[in-house]
Design brief:
Layout: H1 3-20, H2 22-33, H3 37-61, H4 67-86, H5 91-118, H6 125-154, H7 156-177, H8 190-197, H9 200-220, H10 223-230, H11 235-260, H12 264-285, H13 289-321, H14 326-353, H15 361-389
């Protein structure tokens, strides 16, 4: 693999860290800014919405820009956003800073995969893209717990300063290692994105993605306060528990890709059913530390195991219903993941603020995942009906 690919991986690591590290810092941020936990949870929602709506629009607008210059500009925007978050005098400024970082996130992953694939021979493109996205996985396993530990020991602002430092390292690596004159992909027009959204079959999968992925974030967004206030864990142990959760996520992502290869609908049906069951179970085990940890590990394994299957299923359906816009459909499914994060974090905030309280977030998330399971069964039935209606060869 060329060294330029490692520059992209470093950038993906920095972006993955800033996206999820706030989860471990919510109680600290809420206390420092004098806001409620649900208001702090909106920091997660606003970031995800910035990715959801910023990525397709900004990717279309920057389609003609040079690839290296665009990536350098994105990392500069990323650094600026995290510096602004670290220096934010109040809640509103912090939200605005998170939106800046989210814009960089969305466009980076929209164009980064194409650049990674163009750096290697055709038969190694999938491995190159996987290498870049490994930065996200490693960020969940190491960056988020480390950032949480920094925030608990030195204040949440120190975490964002550290993430800005990672962005500077990524900027230097891209400037030094990425070749100039990288080929551009054909610019994605907003009209093409609108046509994909006109397909009912693809909209159904986007809804599966948002509900199935977002259901976990009803709880995951508030995991730190759930562990401390419901489970009785100390503040210092949260970062260690996040390491366990991150390792489970990494394992689930790998296994999820393998089980989804042959039949993504069948794999998603099983994964969503198990995910809803484990979320409901966590409602019962959260107050019991000796049961909460294995349940949480199972939840981490399942919550990201559905990602490869959802992405593969969208590509398969796009080839049938929108063959001229497969890449656009894939990018919009990434937006659906982030829309799910935003919705899950918002729903979690509503639950926390209601009489139900923190302890109810797991079973409410289970209801969202159960809805995704229902949509998956419906989509699978539509697939079988379409295959049965197809003309048989003579």
């Amino acid at each position: 693999m060329p060294l330029a690919l490692f520059a992209l991986t470093i950038a993906a690591y920095a972006i993955g860290t800033t996206e999820f590290v706030i989860v471990g810092l919510l109680p600290t941020v809420a206390q420092d800014l004098g806001i409620s936990l649900p208001l702090a949870g909106l920091i997660v929602s606003v970031y995800a919405l910035g990715v959801t709506f910023g990525a397709p629009v900004l990717t279309a607008l920057t389609g003609r820009a040079g690839r290296k210059a665009l990536l350098l500009g994105l990392m500069a925007l990323f650094v600026a956003g995290n510096l602004a978050a670290a220096l934010a005098p109040g809640y509103g400024t912090l939200l605005a800073a998170r939106v800046l970082s989210a814009f960089a996130h969305g466009v980076f992953f929209s164009v980064g995969a194409t650049i990674a694939a163009g750096l290697v021979a055709p038969d190694r493109r999938a491995s190159a893209i996987a290498m870049m996205f490994m930065g996200l996985t490693v960020a969940i396993v190491t960056g988020v717990p480390l950032g949480t530990w920094i925030g608990q020991g030195f204040g949440w602002r120190a975490t964002f300063l550290a993430v800005a430092g990672l962005g500077v390292v990524a900027f230097i690596a891209i400037a030094a290692l990425l070749p100039a004159g990288l080929p551009k992909a054909p610019p994605t027009r907003l009209l093409e994105q609108a046509r994909v959204l006109g397909s009912g079959r693809l909209l159904l999968v986007f809804a599966m993605t948002a509900l199935g992925y977002g259901g976990t974030f009803v709880t995951f967004t508030y995991l730190a306060p759930v562990l401390q206030q419901v489970g009785g864990f100390s503040e210092g142990s949260v970062s260690l528990i996040l390491v366990l959760y991150g390792l489970a996520i990494a394992a689930g992502n790998l296994v999820g890709g393998r089980v989804a290869d042959r039949d993504p609908v069948r794999a998603l049906t099983v994964l969503f059913a198990l995910q809803a069951l484990v979320l409901a179970l966590f409602s019962l085990t959260a107050p019991l530390p000796w049961l909460a940890l294995p349940t949480l590990a199972a939840l981490g394994f399942l919550s990201f195991a559905n990602v490869p299957g959802l992405q593969l299923y969208v590509v398969q359906l796009a080839r049938l219903h929108r063959p001229e816009a497969v890449d656009v459909a894939s990018a919009l499914n990434i937006a659906a993941f982030n829309l799910g994060i935003a919705a899950g974090a918002w729903v979690g905030g509503v639950v926390v603020e209601s009489p139900l309280g923190l302890g109810a977030t797991p079973w409410v998330g289970a209801l969202l995942v159960a809805a995704a399971l229902g949509l998956t069964l419906w989509s699978g039935a539509l697939d079988r009906r379409a295959r049965g209606a197809a003309p048989q060869p003579a």
